Amino acid sequence: MEALIALLLLLRSATYGAQEEHPTDLGKVWKLTTHEIRQAEGTQGGAGTGKPTPTGTDKPADGPPPRDPQPDAPGVKGVYVTAYSAGGQRMATLLDLVDKTALNAMVIDIKDDNGYITYKTDNPELQKLGTPQPFIKDIGGLMETLKKHEVYPIARIVVFKDTVLAKKHPDLSYVKKDGTLWSNGKGDSFVNPYRKEVWDYNIAIAKEAAKLGFKEIQFDYVRFPEGFEKKADDLKFTKTADSRVDVVAGFVKYAQEQLAPLGVRVSVDIFGYAASVPAAEGIGQDFVKISSAVNVISPMIYPSHYSAGWFKQANPDLAPYATIKGAMDDTHKKLNALGADKPLIRPWIQDFTASWLGKGHYTKYGAAEVKAQIKALADSGVNEYLLWNAGNKYTPGVDY
């Protein structure tokens, strides 16, 4: 059954193109239909359930769970901040938002979706493989400003989606039979999770972020490219006998071990639907194995990511409360295998309008829709969350 689900994930990915971890204002999101999952599972979820039933077969990774290095940290309610915003005029508006509301954290791009290190660094280890771009002109000054405004700082590091490094070192990526670098339909390239040099490079960025004063390292794109099992045989790349799932989980565990002495939390972004389906073998993501190796797990449960039928909703984007509540129910069930050792659950929620879904399938997101998501989290026993808006324009008038 898991192989069949994985095949459906692959086919959907090949048909609709690459999914963004987080949607952009202009981008479309990949969605797996409930109908397809029900067909794959033989309607195990029951007639009319609108979602699959978690299998309950997931097992945590070996070894004890990581200790929280910040047990007295504040409950985080944060917003995503691009390097452009952090280093530009919009930062004043974002600081004002945090100062005047219950929001208290910012997730800031330190290595962005292209692979650029977003500030000037003199670290020779980072300069060897990295390509710094000073979008944040004064990283020290930024950290002082965050401290002054009592902002809990989280460094976002995009790991294996790294077009810059792939072009610079194709040997660390995937090469086609004609010798050219592989890229997806959007022109993005990934680097190879089997390469230890890639692990150490990203962890070196995380270590510098910790030394700069970031309290938490959030790893994103911790996976292989979409539909990788279909591409793998046609690509040249370094690999071992380890499965893709074990390699990805191994990176997360290794990162946590490397960063623990620095007193920073380690968190990982993961597709929200990963809590509702078996492990995605193709991209190497297993919800439970990854969760067992981090302090914080951040499933991306935007209502716009789910298509008709999920959580009994004809149009999930129109039902933010029910969609978030259903996603959280599945998340809790998925992590039951970890018992008291489950990580802190801090989801990403939607503060953008998904107009690309088409008329009748989306609604304009404002204060009511954001508040509905927050209420669904609270009713699920989850009180921390992160707001995503690609342009960093957040809805005013929300009671956080």
Describe this structure in words.
- Residues 62-72 have a biased composition (Pro residues).
- Residues 39-76 are annotated as: Disordered.
- It comes from Cohnella nanjingensis.
- GO terms for molecular function: hydrolase activity.
- This protein is an alpha/beta fold and 400 residues long.
- The protein has a single domain (2-57, 81-388), classed as Alpha-Beta Barrel (TIM Barrel), CATH 3.20.20.
- The chain contains 13 helices and 13 strands.
- The strands form three sheets. The protein has a nine-stranded parallel sheet. The protein has a two-stranded parallel ribbon with strand order 3-4. It has a two-stranded antiparallel sheet with strand order 6-8.
The gist of it:
It contains 13 helices and 13 strands.
User: Any idea what the CATH superfamily is called?
Assistant: Glycosidases
CATH fold description: TIM Barrel
The total tally of domains equals 1
Contiguous low-pLDDT stretches (5 residues minimum) are 1-19, 25-30, 32-57
Which sheet architecture does the biggest sheet show?
9 strands, parallel
Q: What is the strand content?
A: 5-15%
The average pLDDT value, as a whole number, equals: 88
User: Strand order within the widest sheet?
Assistant: 11-10-9-7-5-2-1-13-12
Protein name: Putative glycoside hydrolase
GO molecular function, one term: hydrolase activity
Keywords: Hydrolase, Signal
Organism: Cohnella nanjingensis
